[in-house]
Amino acid sequence: MFGLAGTCVAFLFQVLDxxxxxxxxxxxxxxxxxxxxxxxxxxxxxxxxxxxxHSINSExxxxxxxxxxxxxxxxxxxxxSYLWHYSVGAAVAFVTALILGFVLFMRFQSEVLPQQTxxxxxxxxxxxxxxxPPE
Length: 135
Known about the structure:
Largest sheet: none
Helix content: over 70%
Strand content: under 5%
Order of helices and strands: HHHHH
Distance between the termini: 49 Å
Shape: globular
């Protein structure tokens, strides 16, 4: 996420160097300004969470972190808007690639991650609070 935040900073400076801002550049400006602190917060939070030996399973914690999870989408929208300023075709290609990447990621997540969860559950045995299956 630090890399995406750095990319947004670079594009933000490019937008600020423009002598006049049309609508796509104004949208990009606001997207970058909003996404940079959220991306940095998300990166720091992920770094802290990865240093703990346990995972965050609390619904309250996940609800609290939800605004941080939209930061990459805001940044991508800003990049698309920046491209729109220069070329509508490039912006459409960018958005198409984003959608394709999202669909492929969701497919990967729906097929691979449940298998990993099932493998982990079978290797750990029954949950301590879960009754044993009848024999």
